Amino acid sequence: VVCNGARQAMLFKGLPEMPVKGIDVKDCTITADKGIELSWCEDISITGTSIVCPEGVQTLTTHNVNNLNNQ
Description:
By secondary structure, this protein is mainly β. It has strands at 2-13, 20-26, 29-47, 50-52, 60-70. The protein is globular and about 35 Å long.
């Protein structure tokens, strides 16, 4: 998958009592204004993925994430 010009690469936002679980993202290239934001997530895998953002913008931000595989 290739995506150019997105506002945000990815946003997975769960709740403390209902986290987002079991997401597997493979072999993507995304150019976006903002990177990946994960909040209240479990068992997330992001492999073979390239995130391109403007200089100074974080490509990955996490909050309360358990078992993240980011290769």
